[in-house]
Amino acid sequence: MNNQNLTELQRDALQEITNVGMGKAGAALAQLLGTFVTLSVPRIVLVSVEELITVLRNADQVGSGTPLVRQAFQSDISGEAVVFFGPDGRSELRELMGYDDPAIGLEHEMLSDVANLLVGACVSSVFEQLGRSLSFSAPTFVDASAWFDSPEIMETARWKIALLLHVHFGLENGDFVAQLAMLLPDNAITRMTAALNTVLDAL
Amino acid sequence: MPLSLLVVDDSALARKILINSLPPDWDVEITQATNGVEALRLYHEGKAAVMFLDLTMPEMDGFQVLAQLRQEGLDVFVVVVSADVQAGAIERAKALGAMAFIQKPVNPAKLVPVLKEYGLYE
Question: Considering the entire predicted model, what is its pTM?
């Protein structure tokens, strides 16, 4: 499945709903970091999970040791959010968050905190606008390349589609890039399309 | 004579939500723009006594539109309508001459009090 499976109106609605979600996430991040965060228009694409892996690998975002945070969410539309961090800006983030010790454990903790906040704010907001409330499982931290190679994602057809949000956050003393992907099973995308239609029909 | 409103947002959904949130009995003439460049052109054509302006847009964003309007003398009442809800963004928009700030998603409960506060709608 790709963007062509959404009508232009549905794609625009999903983009706008996501923008609002990212605005919420940016505000939460600004509050956490005590700094102004510049938000760019997030790029959204719907891809198959296989395509998602290719996109992320080609973008050189995901190599050995790339941290990835996973967090499952549940409502009548259930799925999993994953956050990938680009190589830039991690030391600035760590500084802003007051983790002075560059120990790797703390970096993981810091990235988990940031991912949890982004997912919580953005994904909740998206689903709230679609008329749903969500519950979240606790975030888990994994190595991205190991996860891609794991049979769990490749062998099963559990996740049919990924809604990939490429988000660029500008900080005062350096930028960082995070990719947030929502992995959705087949029935979830059908329900999401229906939910988008409900929003559009109400206007 | 109807008041001329310009609704500036790159999203069709966002423009529709905003227009649907306006009081139905408000005597206005609505024009829409999908980016900052178009917004400035329509402003110059006299289509904007009041402008509802999104901040995050491709090409020319809302901050750039505000800066340009201010440079030209700001003969328009600008209400910023944005998903960017950081205190810093609100301050920056107001410093650039925006009169009011409304958080997305827009609804009548958020919009109408602002219109009343500034005497745009009674």
Answer: 0.85
Domain ranges in chain B?
Answer: 3-117
Q: How far apart are CA A114 and CA A67, in angstroms?
A: 12
Amino acid identity, residue B111?
Answer: L
* Residue of A37, A129, A203 lying closest to B20 (CB–CB): A203
Indicate the SS3 state at residue B34. Answer: coil
Residue B10 contacts A, CB cutoff 8 Å: yes
A17 touches chain B (CB under 8 A): yes
Per CB-CB distance under 8 Å, the chain A contacts of B10 are 41
Contact B101, B79 (CB under 8 A): yes
CA-CA distances (angstroms) from residue B103 to A171, B53, B84, B97? Answer: 22, 11, 8, 17
- For chain A, how many structural domains are there in total? 1
Mean pLDDT of A55-72: 70
Binned at pLDDT 50, 70 and 90, residue A165 comes out as confident
ipTM of the complex: 0.88
pLDDT at A3: 47
Q: Tell me the three state secondary structure of residue B72.
A: coil
Burial class (CB in 10 A: 0-12, 13-18, 19+), A26: buried
Instruction: Give the range of the structural domain holding residue A114, as residue numbers without chain letter.
Output: 3-201
Third-level CATH fold of B3-117: Rossmann fold (3.40.50)
Q: Which two tokens stand for residue A33?
A: 């970091």
Pairwise CB contact (< 8 Å): A23 & B11 = no
Residue ranges of chain B with per-residue pLDDT less than 70: none
CA distance B66 to chain A (A): 17
Judge: B20–A17 Cβ closer than 8 Å, yes or no: no
Provide the CATH number for the domain around residue A48: 3.40.1550.10
